[in-house]
């Protein structure tokens, strides 16, 4: 006999899972209270790193079913969702998402649906990268500086270079100017490269 579990997640303490559980009930799923798993955790956390989702994975058995309201309940992004569904299909359990009615995401139809969703997600990522690169190129063409501001002002960089030449240590200068040792070491190495002695 198939046991059906509900998994509901919210991101912050001020939110409630009641709407999700109401949607699941309205969709015709009658789930015993002890099979309802709820969690308050950021969606940026991978599904398998969530304590209550891990508890759900420990409880489910082959032939069971999981119901969620939306795909983002199952992972932080399309790739994580696909990985979660693939892991569940190996058990195997059914995965029902109310946002995609009538499709068991672990079936061949569900697999096709996930491939389309992954392709869309990849397309969106590629577009974002293209827009970012275009924005950087446009900013550079307008003479704007792109990237992090330098850790040191030109004046401080000159003072550190002079102090290094007199034998001051990288560590002491890093502490004195509130920068990393790597920043001071770069100035030291640059000074060596520019030195006539090489």
Low-confidence runs: none
Provide the CATH top-level class of the largest domain.
Alpha Beta
Molecular shape: elongated
Q: Helicity, in percent? A: 40-55%
Account of the protein in words:
The chain is α/β, with parallel strands linked by helices and 198 residues long. It folds into 2 domains: 4-107, 3-Layer(aba) Sandwich (Rossmann fold), CATH 3.40.50.1390; 154-194. It is 49% helix and 10% strand. It has a 4-stranded parallel sheet with strand order 2-1-3-4, sandwiched between helices. The model has no long low-confidence stretch (mean pLDDT 85).
Short description:
The protein has 198 residues and is of the alpha/beta class. The protein contains seven helices and four strands, in the order E-H-E-H-E-H-E-H-H-H-H.
Itemize the secondary structure elements and their pairings:
Elements: E1 4-10, H1 18-26, E2 36-40, H2 51-59, E3 65-68, H3 78-89, E4 94-97, H4 108-141, H5 154-165, H6 170-177, H7 181-194
Parallel strand pairs: 1-2, 1-3, 3-4
Helix pairs in contact: 5-7, 6-7
List keywords for this structure.
7 helices; alpha/beta; 198 residues; elongated; 2 domains; Rossmann fold; four-stranded parallel β-sheet
């Amino acid at each position: 006999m198939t046991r059906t579990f509900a998994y509901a997640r919210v991101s912050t303490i001020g939110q409630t899972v009641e709407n999700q559980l109401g949607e699941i009930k309205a969709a015709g799923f009658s789930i015993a209270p002890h099979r309802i798993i709820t969690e308050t955790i950021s969606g940026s956390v991978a599904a398998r790193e969530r304590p209550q989702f891990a508890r759900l994975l420990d409880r489910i058995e082959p032939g069971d079913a999981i119901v969620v309201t939306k795909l983002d309940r199952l992972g932080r992004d399309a790739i994580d969702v696909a990985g979660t569904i693939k892991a569940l299909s190996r058990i195997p359990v059914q995965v029902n998402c109310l946002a995609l009615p009538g499709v068991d995401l672990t079936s061949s139809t569900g697999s096709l649906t996930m491939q389309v969703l992954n392709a869309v997600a990849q397309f969106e990522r590629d577009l974002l990268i293209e827009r970012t690169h275009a924005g950087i190129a446009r900013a550079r063409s307008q003479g704007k500086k792109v990237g992090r501001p330098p850790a040191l002002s030109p004046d401080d960089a000159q003072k550190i270079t002079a102090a290094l030449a007199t034998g001051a240590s990288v560590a002491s200068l890093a502490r004195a100017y509130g920068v990393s040792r790597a920043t001071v070491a770069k100035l030291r190495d640059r000074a060596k490269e520019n030195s006539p002695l090489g």
